[in-house]
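Dear Dr. H.,

I hope your travels went smoothly. While you were away I took the liberty of generating a structure for the chain from your last submission, since the lab meeting agenda had it listed for discussion. I wanted you to have the full record in hand beforehand rather than looking at slides cold. The sequence, exactly as received, is reproduced here:
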Amino acid sequence: MTEQPDQELYYELQIAANRQTIWIHSSDGSTVGRFSPRGIDLHNTVTEMMAGAPECRLCTYGSPTQADWLTFRNRSLEWWGVDVPHNAIDTSFLLPG
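The corresponding predicted structure, in token form, is as follows:
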């Protein structure tokens, strides 16, 4: 059996038509990021979890703040190279902070 080199993962950004939810999908089939009025989910990929990593990297529950939006954008860029535009969501639902 020949070993296959690990393929580098790539990521894509999906924005809901109403601009209230954003997802980040990985090429291994994982959804690694979600930002919505219900909070933030930033997860490891399925590939990473199968290697022993936990599911959650940073998750919140409840109404997100302006600071949460900045955190989501910063971590998406840092962890996956996904540059989420500052105006990708309707910020009217964000709490101050």
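Two observations you may find useful: The chain has one domain: 11-85. The two ends are 55 Å apart (CA to CA).

With kind regards,
E. W.
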